[in-house]
Specification:
The complex is a heterodimer of chains A (about 350) and B (about 400). Chain A has about 350 residues and is an alpha/beta fold. Chain A has two domains: about 210 residues, Peroxisomal Thiolase, Chain A, domain 1 (3-Layer(aba) Sandwich), CATH 3.40.47; about 130 residues, Thiolase/Chalcone synthase (Peroxisomal Thiolase, Chain A, domain 1), CATH 3.40.47.10. Chain A is about 30% helix and about 20% strand. In chain A, strands 3-2-4-5-1-6-10-9-7-8 form a ten-stranded mixed β-sheet, sandwiched between helices. In chain A, helix 2 crosses helix 5. Chain B has twelve helices and 13 strands. Helix content of chain B is about 35%, strand content about 20%. The longest helix of chain B is centred in the first third of the chain and has 16 residues. Chain B is globular, with a radius of gyration of 19 Å. Chain B has two domains: about 240 residues, Peroxisomal Thiolase, Chain A, domain 1, CATH 3.40.47; about 150 residues, Peroxisomal Thiolase, Chain A, domain 1, CATH 3.40.47.10. The chains are: A alpha/beta (about 350), B alpha/beta (about 400). The interface between A and B is large, with 61 and 67 residues.
Chain lengths: ~350, ~400
């Protein structure tokens, strides 16, 4: 498919809102969650509107503006978002009042803002965009569904360009709930050292990422998204390998032509095995990883897509993201594969090229 | 890209029936599902009527032969019933003989259990396994696992238009040759969370809802699930199987006006219907029946009514809302009404808009108020509009 990334707007636990830099300075987090480095909103949103917005809405409006500005697009042909858990802060607020006040004396604001499509709706209102609008919420396929939808929209010529985004937020209360599950590390974690704990669980993160996609290669284009693919509940490593083989073959590329593979390692000893299997016994190239920078969340694939696109555009992989630092081979970055999985349930693959 | 999309299976569960047959019978009998709350534990039990699925969770688990130790939410259970019926009605023997996906729409997801066990979530009490069934994807994956689908799973979440968007995404995946078959629809259970949410918006009628009536007072919430099986032209040709109807049009547009309100002139509604018509290649006068979103709120019925007038003129084709039967099943509504649209074509029926009394002064038309039988129904337009300005329209046509 002819799908190109023309602009990005990324708010993450790293300093990523300035598109002219690329992880030049690394932010370390002392708390046991990685929260977003929030921009100065008043540069993007007027103060009256700002007061009414919850944190995630602010971040999303801001990221979408950064993205469209870079792409030079005023009104996209579609707005599509993906989110694992939607607007957690507003949901908690309304749920807590329903429970605490026994279903009485409630006000609607947090309820209104708690549906998952709030972001795509609010961005559309901000842009006065009446075009196609959709939101997906499916675990580790949330952003991937949105991205696939955007690609189909362009491919079907239903839109010339599409604003596609992924968003998820972590709150204190939600983090305290996640800590009751096996998916979050019990011990205090230095996130930059995430891969060395070799214990179950990972570290919670969050992020808002928007991409402007077009059907034409233009100057300033980051990269081409050649294709994406998803794999649901594979039974073993072999099935994943076969899936990658077929995905690459269907897109006319062999694994030896990959210049960089970006992997979703999150330090969970229960589920990272497949990544090490692939680097040890399947691929033979350069590797990068990223969850030590942004943490784990349902739409983290969007951060990986940004890392891939930006690596292609700048022709460099930031030192902090290199997995095989010792034997990293400097070469042109043309073909990049991103492979990420969520809890070994939702496996996703993006193939990008220059 | 010119690939045609066929509906080859349907399944449904709602307040008016646990399957296709019961649903149709309730409509023929003019029997509503809206009444006093019996399953949902809520302060508003005696004051706000809703349309509940008659089975309890335990009965649904029993009915489908599921393991009662698994953390099933009500959305999952209803979704399994409807998806299973859809797959069976499509006569599918081996679900993996073609590339198959499940796409479901839901918004409250597993909130029914989260609101019950939230204290346990915070204190590591006995129901913490439900933490992982809270999100929207959980029900879709359990439905997919039940019917044995592995190739593709996804969940739309655009509030009250979710299921219509699932059907649309499914059709587009088939057209783009990414899948051959999609079980598409939606599921939503009643929760205290959104019952109270809608209540704070003051749009819940304390009596039976009256869509398109001058004196309408709001909507009745409902719950349920429905799925259609969409299959490619190739499958239908190769197998010569039975086709219920064809999905000829779909359109999605955004109101971009207000998080919970639509413009008085119904801009988004108009655009969604127009896009669906354009895609189908049909002229407005070829539509035989409009299954309206028709929630019974002040705002929706004016904007939708005006949008219909803009597109179809002052004497539009027969219009009715079936929400006076099923209640507003929110994320499932698009699929429940898609199934009703398919049944309208199959049985040559146009459904009555129950509880209608007085024509709205803003509109030139009245909805259909009596059941029409043996009428020509070749093309049905079905509308679904959601919070956040997400408007979608689908067109089903006789094959």
């Amino acid at each position: 498919m002819e799908i190109y990334i023309k602009g990005t707007g990324i708010i993450s636990p790293q300093k990523t809102t300035d598109n002219s830099v690329f992880l030049d300075e690394i932010v370390t987090h002392d708390k046991d969650v990685l929260s977003c480095v929030e921009p100065a909103y008043k540069e993007y949103i007027n103060p009256i509107q700002l007061r009414r917005m919850s944190r995630l809405i602010k971040m999303s409006i801001c990221a979408s503006k950064i993205c469209l500005k870079e792409a030079g697009i005023e009104n996209p042909g579609g707005i599509i978002t993906g989110t694992g858990l939607g607007l957690v802060e507003d949901t908690e607020k309304f749920l807590n009042s329903v429970l605490d006040y026994k279903e009485q004396f409630l006000t609607p604001t947090s309820f209104i803002q708690s549906t998952h499509n709030t972001i795509s709706g609010q961005v559309a209102i901000a842009l006065q965009c009446f075009n196609y609008n959709n939101t997906y919420s499916h675990r580790g396929f949330s952003f991937e569904s949105a991205l696939l939808d955007a690609m189909l929209l362009i491919n079907d010529k239903d839109a010339e360009n599409v604003l596609v985004g992924g968003f998820d937020e972590i709150t204190e209360q939600h983090h305290s709930i996640l800590k009751k599950t096996k998916w979050v590390k019990k011990e205090k974690v230095n996130h930059l050292d995430l891969l060395n704990y070799k214990t179950p669980g990972t570290v919670d993160g969050e992020g808002v990422s928007f991409f402007a996609l077009t059907g034409k290669r233009e100057s300033g284009t980051y990269a081409q998204i050649k294709n994406i693919s998803t794999l649901y509940k594979p039974k073993d490593f072999k099935e994943i390998e076969n899936h990658i083989n077929k995905f690459l073959a269907d897109n006319g590329i062999s694994k030896n032509e990959l210049d960089l593979v970006i992997l979703g390692l999150n330090g969970n000893s229960d589920t990272d095995g497949i990544y090490y299997h692939l680097t040890d016994a399947y691929f033979n190239t350069n590797y990068a990883y990223f969850k030590h920078l942004c943490g784990e969340f349902h739409t983290v694939g969007a951060f990986a897509l940004w890392l891939a696109a930006k690596s292609i555009k700048h022709q460099v992989v930031p030192e902090i993201a290199k997995l095989n630092k010792q034997n990293f081979v400097n070469k042109p970055i043309k073909n990049v594969l991103v492979y990420n999985h969520f809890k070994n349930i939702n496996h996703s693959f993006y193939l990008l090229n220059q | 890209m010119s690939k045609r999309i066929f509906v080859t299976g349907i399944g449904i569960i709602s307040g008016i029936g646990n399957n296709i047959e019961e649903t149709l019978q309730s409509i023929l009998d003019g029997k509503t599902g809206v009444g006093k709350i019996t399953h949902l534990e809520t302060f508003h039990k005696d004051t706000i009527p809703v349309s509940e699925v008659k089975y309890s969770n335990e009965e649904l688990i029993e009915l489908m032969g599921l393991n009662k130790k698994d953390p099933f939410t009500r959305a999952t259970l209803m979704g399994i019933v409807a998806a299973d019926e859809a797959v069976k009605s499509a006569g599918i023997k081996n679900i993996n003989d073609y590339r198959t996906g499940v796409i479901s729409g839901t918004t409250v997801g597993g909130m029914d259990k989260s609101e019950q066990f939230y204290h346990d979530f915070l204190t590591a009490g006995e129901h913490i396994e439900y933490i992982e069934s809270h999100d929207c994807g959980d029900s879709t994956e359990r439905i997919a696992d039940y019917v044995g689908v592995k190739d593709f799973v996804s969940t739309t979440s655009t509030a009250c238009s979710s299921a219509a968007n699932s059907i649309m995404f499914g059709a587009r995946l088939i057209k783009n040759n990414r899948l051959d078959r999609v079980i598409a629809g939606g599921t939503e259970s009643l929760t205290k969370y959104h019952l109270n949410g809608f209540n704070t918006l003051m749009i819940l009628d304390r009596e039976q809802c009256k869509p398109f009536d001058e004196n309408r007072k709001g909507l009745n919430l409902g719950e349920g699930a429905a799925f259609v099986v969409l299959e490619s032209e190739d499958i239908v040709r190769e197998t010569g199987k039975k086709v219920f109807c064809e999905l000829t049009g779909y359109g999605n547009a955004c109101e971009a006006f207000h998080q919970t309100a639509s413009t008085p002139e119904g801009k988004g509604a108009y655009l969604a219907m127009k896009k669906a018509l354009d895609r189908s290649g049909l002229k407005p006068e070829q539509i035989d029946y409009i299954n309206a979103h028709g929630t019974g709120t002040e705002n929706n019925d004016i904007s939708e009514g005006r949008a219909i007038e803009t597109l179809f003129g002052k004497t539009p084709p027969p219009v009715s809302s079936t929400k006076s039967f099923t209640g507003h099943t929110t994320s499932a509504a698009g699929a429940i009404e898609a199934v009703l649209s398919v049944l309208a074509i199959q049985h040559n029926l146009i459904y009555p808009n129950m509880n209608f009394n007085q024509q709205m002064k803003e509109l030139s038309f009245r909805p259909v108020t009596e059941l029409l039988t043996n009428v020509k129904v070749d093309h049905v337009l079905s509308n679904s509009f959601g919070f956040g300005g997400n408007n979608s329209a689908l067109i089903f046509s006789r094959y």
